[in-house]
Design a protein that fits this description.
alpha/beta, Ubiquitin-like (UB roll), Rossmann fold, 3-stranded mixed beta sheet, 6 helices, 9-stranded mixed beta sheet, elongated
């Protein structure tokens, strides 16, 4: 083949190759442009179309739907796709303390779903002699109260520092605060495993070497230090069942500071400092309540007398 013909063929191959490259480049550009257009359309749809238009609120709660909606911090028109469901649930639980285990989900294209449970008060932490922070089992403060409601365990702890409604109790930093949380966690777990939690009136963890609980306003259960708390409470549960088989009215002290044995000593309430102090506090509350009721009755009687005159 002559040299001119060879050069001609080479040029032809190069031209064909360049044409292919140009077509491929044009195709890639078109695909890119199409992808950008699709992304813009999709983004616009997500931004403008997938927005909160209604709320689906349900669950066991004492709050009105409007209160829960306001507590979410979400307004109609809020973008649904980028909404932080975890943060929204936390907003509700903090703003409305008696909302517990709040779950927030998205139902496309336009519904925000909120499911709630009613928080159950378990503990009443003493802030001072007349003020208590009522909390659930996770130590979230449900409300600040002037009394310890029936069926709630009164707790005394020297490590408590912060107790705002809707927030988790805060304890002093350092070892003593961490120990307090540890005691509460272990004792709570032990209470759940035993069958006498509903009969526990008070828990004192002020002194880590002399932890005790009060049972049915008549027996002080001395747990000693913080070691083997679950085992000690299980031993106490068994010992109380045995004692109650003889008499379920007796008062005294049950010592389970040693997890190997339980020692019960029948005593009068007045000779048990922890128990007499607790009973006095309860009686004071009842006296105040009775006095308030007496004043109300007196006012009612006076009103009736005025009407008869």
């Amino acid at each position: 083949m002559s040299s001119p013909e060879k050069r001609k063929r080479v040029k032809q191959r190069i031209r064909i190759k360049n044409e292919k490259i140009q077509k491929l480049t044009a195709f890639i550009i078109l695909v890119f442009i199409a992808a950008v257009i699709v992304a813009l359309i999709t983004g616009a749809f997500i931004y403008f179309a997938l927005r909160v238009r209604k709320f689906d609120i349900s669950g066991d709660t004492e709050y009105k739907k409007e209160q829960i909606i306001n507590a979410t911090g979400i307004d109609i028109g809020h973008n649904l796709i980028f909404l932080d469901t975890v943060g929204t649930a936390e907003n509700v639980e903090k703003a409305l303390p008696y909302c517990d285990n709040v779950r927030v989900t998205k139902k496309l294209p336009s519904t925000l779903v909120v499911r709630t449970q009613k928080a159950v008060p378990v503990y009443a932490f003493a802030i001072n002699e007349t003020t208590f922070a009522l909390t659930n089992s996770n130590l979230k403060v449900l409300e600040i109260s002037g009394t310890v409601p029936e069926g709630i365990i009164g707790v005394q702890s020297s490590a408590l520092t912060q107790y705002s409604e809707g927030s988790i109790l805060q304890f002093v930093s350092g070892e003593s605060g961490e120990d307090t949380i540890g005691y509460l966690t272990e004792i709570s777990a032990a209470f759940e495993k035993t069958d006498f939690i509903k009969n526990i009136n008070a828990l004192n963890i002020t002194d880590s070497k002399s932890i005790y609980v009060i049972y049915q306003d008549r027996i002080v259960i001395r747990l000693g230090d913080s070691k083997n708390l679950t085992q000690k409470l299980s031993l106490a549960s068994k010992a109380i069942r045995e004692e109650d088989a003889n008499s379920d009215k007796q008062t005294g002290v049950l010592d389970v500071s040693s997890p190997e044995k339980a020692v019960f000593a029948a005593k009068d309430i007045n000779s048990i400092p922890e128990l007499s102090a607790w009973i006095s506090a309860v009686e004071d509350d009842e006296t105040v309540q009775e006095a308030a009721e007496g004043i109300t009755d007196k006012d009612n009687n006076n009103n009736e007398e005025e009407k008869s005159q």
